[in-house]
Amino acid sequence: MLATMTFGLLFLLFILLKLILVVEMREVCIIERLGKFRAVMQPGVHFLIPFIDRVAYRHETREQVLDIPAQSCISKDNIQINVDGLVYIKVMDGMKASYGIEDYRTASVNLAQTTMRSEIGKLNLSETFSERDTLNETIVREIDKASDPWGIKVLRYEVRNITPSPNVIHTLEKQMEAERAKRAEITLAEAERESTINLSEGERQEAINLSEGDKQRQINEAEGKAKEIEILTQASAQGVSMIAKAVQKEGGDNAIKMRLMEQYINQTGDILANADISVLPTEIAKLEGFFEGMDKVTAATQGGKA
Q1: CA-CA distance, 158 to 85, in Å (whole number)?
Q2: Are 281 and 268 in contact (CB under 8 A)?
């Protein structure tokens, strides 16, 4: 009797479990009735017909992250690189996710790989690094188109690692060294050119400064001479004016003649003192000639008597 009651309680518990379905907030359930799709059960409590209705599929409705394994790709410039990434998807239609594709996760990963390989082949190696955001957007757009019949939405794709082969890395390192050496040579050449320009500018400025200084010196000398001439002229004019006034006074004429005689005597004395040859005034020269003639006549007369 006890065994029968125990079996009956277990049977009732089994029936209750088959009758009541609790769907959690993070998922949806696909219900089949006698093997045929019946409904998509949203989160909450639902009642089923035992042995007729069954939960065929459960789908996660939260955003899912799928790891894309690394794969070998060939870039547009024929360089082999290994690329991996992450794809973020979300189930939007539970029925399509159940019946539109066998395994949407595996299908999403394979589609992401093929799309990534195709898009990498359109870019050069340098572009795969600089155009990563554009590459991500293109892959998302292409995967989303193909996955629409599966009832899932591709939210974003992220390229995680782009790794060239060891030979390519070695070649790139050599290329970078060559670029650095080239930039260093260009920098040195630019510095030398700037130095030459600066030196020539300094020499040019120095020549300009010297020329300006010499020009200013000549101007100053000319102005000084002009000032000197002006002062001498003014002094001469004042002297002439004073002489004219003195002449008009009584005895001024005699004073001027005496002054001229003094200047004549003084200048004649200076000439006689500084000249290398004998210089005499005209009157004295005539007297000297007269006396020399007389000496010659006397000498000739004395010679005749002898």
Answers
A1: 6
A2: yes
List, for the chain, all residue ranges whose pLDDT scores fall below the cut of 50.
285, 287, 290-291, 294, 297, 304-306
Structure tokens at 223: 């102005």
pLDDT at 297: 46
Of the candidates 140, 155, 40, the one whose C-alpha atom is nearest the C-alpha of residue 98 is 40
The pLDDT tens digits for 252-276 are: 666 666 666 666 676 666 666 665 6
Q: Name residues whose C-beta falls within 8 Å of residue 65's C-beta, 6 or more positions apart in sequence.
A: 86, 87, 88
Task: Report which DSSP code applies to 276.
Answer: S
What's the pTM value of the predicted model, to 2 decimals? Answer: 0.52
| 140-170 residue pLDDT tens | 888 888 888 888 898 888 888 888 877 777 7
pLDDT value of residue 249 = 65
Q: Report residue 108 as tokens.
A: 């999403």
- Cα separations (Å) of 182 from 39, 151, 178, 186, 196? 70, 55, 6, 6, 21
Residue type, 134: T
Among 141, 128, 12, CA closest to 73: 128
CB 81 within 8 A of CB 59: no
Alpha-helical (H) ranges within 62-165 are 94-99, 104-120, 125-130, 132-147
Please give the pLDDT value at position 256.
64
DSSP assignment string, 197-237: HHHHHHHHHHHHHHHHHHHHHHHHHHHHHHHHHHHHHHHHH
pLDDT at 271: 67
Per-residue exposure over 227-258, b if at least 16 CB sit within 10 Å of its own CB, e if not = eeeeeeeeeeeeeeeeeeeeeeeeeeeeeeee
Q: What DSSP designation does 131 have?
A: T
CB 118 within 8 A of CB 60: no
Dist. CA 176–CA 154, nearest whole Å = 38
Written as six digits, the tokens of 89 are 């998807």
